[in-house]
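Quick check before the chapter quiz. The format below is the same one you will see on the exam, so make sure you can read both the input and the output lines.
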Amino acid sequence: MGEAKRRQELGLPPREKKKKNEEKKAGFMNNLSAKYPFLPFILGGVLLTVLIVDLVNYYK
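Here is the expected output.
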């Protein structure tokens, strides 16, 4: 016996179809990191270089 017949015999309404959740829009950082996966390494290298140069200039 199918579910539809069983629900009809029990006097229950037809089953509601499940709605798929709409995809959430990714944030700015997620889009940026997906588009440029090497960007954190470049920014880290630049920051490290700036800190080293600043440290050398400080102790002159």
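If your answer matched, good. The CA atoms of residues 38 and 44 lie 10 Å apart.
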